[in-house]
């Protein structure tokens, strides 16, 4: 009986959150090594399906960097990185698009279906859902990253139509090159296709959240969130303002792999998204705990 009463309390606590997010977009970015754990990935997808079933409009954006690197190794293609960016040749963009769209997106859509939901893959290869331009390295205009891009346009109308129809968009961060962007035939990664760009998954999620006017953006990570001491989980910062985040970046507390994720949070907030969250994908149902409980478990960033 006590267990049943406890479950009822959880539902009551979740009710105001469910009501406030009804028919509002929440962009969720899944990446990191957690994606390579089938159990973790399936559990996460079920949480996203639950969000849709209670009336929210989730948009799932995924990465897949380690899988791309593994496929490149199998193909005998040597990876090259410049300032954290994978230099993307036409050969690499073909591998990236195949892995992200035909393998990762397809697998996630299947998991959504198994979980009782409906999903549809979106990207810049099959449509103009994501448009982009080539990325320039700040302070190094002569550095050529190849077919690495930034999102310039998101087909938000497509997301509205799909969400209103009960479908969960599953987005691979592959953008179609903007027609106005200078390019040559060597940029075409697919025979007879269109020039494609490899976009950082966190940056793509941030751009999508901004275009949709999302209520929240949530980044699933391998760590609990922003910590003052990376070796001490008790140093987790549960809530941060934009100003405090800048202080932690300046003093070096936020660095390494956490830095681009936090920057993507700030970009989304600057574009009007109300709240950004970083939570651990390794905690069972972390997404639901962060969304539907008063305390949450990760780091919340606000303006």
Protein described:
This protein is α/β, with parallel strands linked by helices and 303 residues long. The chain has a single domain, classed as Carbamate kinase, CATH 3.40.1160.10. It contains 9 helices and 14 strands. The strands form 3 sheets. Strands 5-8-2-1-11-13-14-12 form an 8-stranded mixed sheet, sandwiched between helices. Strands 6-7-10-9 form a 4-stranded mixed barrel. A two-stranded antiparallel ribbon has the order 3-4. β3 and β4 form a beta hairpin. α3 packs across α4 and α6 packs parallel to α8. The longest helix has 25 residues. The chain is globular. The relative contact order is 0.15. The model has no long low-confidence stretch (mean pLDDT 87).
Summed up, the domain count is: 1
Strand content: 15-25%
Task: Please state how the strands of the largest beta sheet are arranged side by side.
Answer: 5-8-2-1-11-13-14-12
By CATH, the architecture is named 3-Layer(aba) Sandwich
The backbone outline, from C-alpha atoms, is globular
- List segments where confidence is low: pLDDT < 50 over at least 5 consecutive residues: none
What's the helix count?
A: 9
Radius of gyration computed on alpha carbons: 19 Å
**Amino-to-carboxy terminus distance:** 43 Å
Overall mean pLDDT score? 87
- Class computed from helices, strands and strand pairing: alpha/beta
Number of strands: 14
Assigned CATH class = Alpha Beta
- Helicity range: 25-40%
Helix and strand sequence: HEHEHEEHEEEHEEEHEEHHEHE
CATH superfamily: Acetylglutamate kinase-like
């Amino acid at each position: 009986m006590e267990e049943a009463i406890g479950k009822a309390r959880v539902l009551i606590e979740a009710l105001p959150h469910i009501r406030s997010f009804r028919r509002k977009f929440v962009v969720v970015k899944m990446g990191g090594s957690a994606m390579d754990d089938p159990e973790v990935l399936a559990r996460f997808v079920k949480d996203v399906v639950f969000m849709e079933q209670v009336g929210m409009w989730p948009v799932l954006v995924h990465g897949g960097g380690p899988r791309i690197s593994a496929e490149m190794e199998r193909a005998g293609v040597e990876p090259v990185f410049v300032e954290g960016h994978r230099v993307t040749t036409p050969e690499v963009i073909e591998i990236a698009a195949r892995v992200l769209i035909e393998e990762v997106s397809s697998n996630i859509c299947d998991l959504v279906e198994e979980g009782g939901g409906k999903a549809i893959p979106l990207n810049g290869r099959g449509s103009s859902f994501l448009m982009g331009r080539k990325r320039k390295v700040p302070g190094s205009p002569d550095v050529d990253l190849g077919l690495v891009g930034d999102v310039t346009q998101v087909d938000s109308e497509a997301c509205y139509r799909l969400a209103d129809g009960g479908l969960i968009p599953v987005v691979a961060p592959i953008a179609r090159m903007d027609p106005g962007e200078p390019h040559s035939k060597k940029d075409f990664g697919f025979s007879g296709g269109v020039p494609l760009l490899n976009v950082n998954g966190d940056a793509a999620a941030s751009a999508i959240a901004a275009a949709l006017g999302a209520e929240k953006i949530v980044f699933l990570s391998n760590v609990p969130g922003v910590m003052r001491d990376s070796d001490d989980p008790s140093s987790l910062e549960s809530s941060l303002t934009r100003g405090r985040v800048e202080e932690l970046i300046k003093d070096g507390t936020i660095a390494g792999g956490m830095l681009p994720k936090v920057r993507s949070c700030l970009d989304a907030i600057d574009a009007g998204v109300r709240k950004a969250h970083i939570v651990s994908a390794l905690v069972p149902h972390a997404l639901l705990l962060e969304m539907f409980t008063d305390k949450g478990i990760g780091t919340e960033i606000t303006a």
